[in-house]
Write a structure and sequence with these properties.
Radius of gyration: 18 Å
Order of helices and strands: HHHHHH
Strand content: under 5%
Largest sheet: none
Oligomer: single chain
Number of helices: 6
Number of domains: 1
Distance between the termini: 26 Å
Length: 142
């Protein structure tokens, strides 16, 4: 945690963990399936562990962000797999609690797959940008 404020540690943790937990608990309530809670807890635990390791190792911010985005992308892809398996109860829950929404649009496995792919693409961009920035500094004379 060299030279970084504790506030940025907690902010980075909250930004990753709370959306995963909120999505997991909300989907679990809508679909009446504990699998979504497990997904949220597993995703939050993985995000927290990766964040702690990267923070303690003093990784460059771009690499840190890339790995965290890749973790979130994997969680989004796993959510797509869960939605594929439990689509019908999820659609029924959405129709019951939010009748104004088109349930078939919100309960598509492709949503998780596309979100996961987009997060992985952004993570790759951060990794390339961080690597290019590091290479540029290393080549300069002191």
């Amino acid at each position: 945690m060299r030279g970084r404020s504790p506030g940025s540690w907690y902010l980075g943790l909250a930004v990753g963990i709370f959306p995963l937990l909120l999505a997991g608990f909300a989907a679990s309530a809508l679909a009446n399936r504990l699998a979504f809670v497990g997904w949220g807890l597993a995703g939050a635990a993985a995000y927290g562990a990766v964040h702690r390791y990267a923070w303690g190792a003093g990784w460059a911010p771009a690499l840190h962000a890339a790995v965290l985005l890749a973790c979130a992308g994997g969680a989004a892809f796993a959510l797509g797999l869960l939605v594929e398996r439990h689509r019908e109860p999820l659609e029924l829950g959405i129709r019951a609690l939010l009748p104004a929404l088109d349930a078939s649009r919100w309960a598509r496995p492709a949503n998780g797959y596309v979100a996961g792919g987009a997060l992985l693409a952004v993570a790759g961009g951060f990794a390339v940008a961080g690597r290019a920035g590091r290479r540029g500094r290393a080549g300069r004379a002191p």
